[in-house]
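Minimal example, chain plus nicotinamide-adenine-dinucleotide.
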Amino acid sequence: MVKILVTGGAGYIGSHTCKVLARHGFEPVVYDNLSRGNRWAASFGMFELGDIGDAARVRSVLEKYRPSALMHFAAYAYVGESVASPLLYYRNNIGETASLLQTLIDFEPAPVVFSSSCATYGVPNRLPISEDHPQQPINPYGYSKLVVERMLGDIDAAHNLRSVSLRYFNAAGADPEAEIGEAHEPETHLIPLVLAAARDATAIKVFGNDYDTADGTCIRDYVHVLDIADAHVRALKYLLDGGATCAVNLANERGYSVLEVVATAERVTGKSIQIELLPRRLGDPAVLIGALQRARTLLGWKPERSDLEIQMRDAWKWMTRSS
Ligand SMILES: NC(=O)c1ccc[n+]([C@@H]2O[C@H](COP(=O)([O-])OP(=O)(O)OC[C@H]3O[C@@H](n4cnc5c(N)ncnc54)[C@H](O)[C@@H]3O)[C@@H](O)[C@H]2O)c1
């Protein structure tokens, strides 16, 4: 079986991708330090505990499994935390990734699928955001992802290590079989927060209702986590077939406002949800919607679960099952 090393495979998106990899006949090997992930989520393939910056440990795992490719999810991923503690992000997301890639190159330069982000674009000057939009991140998290994209481009030129950087918009939903789902601590993503507010009869904080959008609240492009996982398998096959280094958006080309998310949560849960209206947060663009043409052309990918209600039903099924 073709083995794939999956850093961060005990996290939200990595664990769903491992499940889909296994379904496609690959053997995922999760490599995770469990700083933000869950051991129970890494239940599709082998598990190896370790930090991506620990070169000796990474090398021993590479020697043990001889993976055909690397999927690199491991990172810290909280925008607010990155603003408060930038060096944490520069060290873990950039420094430790440089160490991981050096170890990989020293062993054997296998292709890489990298978890990048729409946060690399910053505030958009046109919509939908296509891959050739300027990348001007407005926080250390987005900058850390951009640096790794550049690092991967430079490594290809120097060492023939090909990669696909997948720039996800907002990951949402859960495994429809509810075996795994989103379990961040603390949770910062809107959909699980809104669903938790419905479950616990608490209020959901809405930051700003004076944006230049139809209802005044921010609009985001939500992509089902299984669609993201499917895109990883396609990107992997593209690289294993000899595909060239590139960056690809994973988006729906469709956005929902915060109030639309709340209304959908009310329909899905059958509960009414209270809103606590607060001032805008610094650095929240009004609208983020991604263009998906390149993913269609290059990977043959299109999202199958773009309907927000489907995404929220899966997330709710997971949340109510696990609570
Ligand atoms: N969730 C989103 O909407 C979203 C959007 C765009 C990009 N991304 C990116 O996708 C990736 C996965 O996101 P997620 O939401 O699943 O995050 P997550 O926090 O659930 O998963 C990240 C995993 O990486 C592990 N990890 C972190 N640092 C590590 C290290 N130094 N060594 C080993 N393991 C380490 C954590 O323990 C965790 O299991 C991240 O790189 C994130 O930046 C996420």
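The pocket of nicotinamide-adenine-dinucleotide is lined by residues 7-8, 10-14, 32-37, 51-53, 73-75, 77, 92, 96, 115, 117, 168, 170-171, 184 (CB under 6 Å). The chain has a mean pLDDT of 97.
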